[in-house]
Amino acid sequence: MQQQKRRIILASIFLAIGIAGGAASVVSQGPLPADIAITRFLQSTLGSEPSWAGPITQSAKPPTVWLLLVGGLGLVWIRTGWRGPVAVLTAFLSIKLVDFILRASVHTPKPIADLVAVASPSESSGFPSTFGLVYGAVFGCIVFARSSDDWKSTAALVTSIGMILIGAISRIVLGGHWTSQMVASLCLAFAIVLVVYFGLEHKRETSSLLTAED
What we know:
transmembrane, PAP2/HPO_sf
């Protein structure tokens, strides 16, 4: 029960950050404070188009996103058993719906070449970030899974955190999204993941109580 309460509290925090960040991006119709500085710092440190960033950013798009999904299913199975894959698939479908609804409702500009280096200029909305939603859903399910403390589980956790960080940096350094847009999108995905886990665990506990009463 305490674990479920913590999940809901944490989901509420992530949801609030995601909504606040997204709303600020929509209202400003441009970069938020520190967005330009962070992108320029990353580009000066890593280069404006590091060779590894392109393939990573493509991994959230078909057809490679299906390979990413399979990899996420494997990692979450290692970490938490059968509930993990169910959570990944549910969260993935949920973020696809959220992405569709938000993109039909709001539009925020992506970084422009007048401010930072942009590898592939695009007129599509910077918020939500489809990449951030996908990575947040797939790898967030691994990060927030309830698991044992064996080395395999720890390796899956570290790998997933690393993928989220490297993925976010890739999109930012290529000028695909502002940091605020990426953070807001990741937070929305994390909130969805936590709600999905809450639902699965609540269902399991309810079933256990009904079985015990019988």
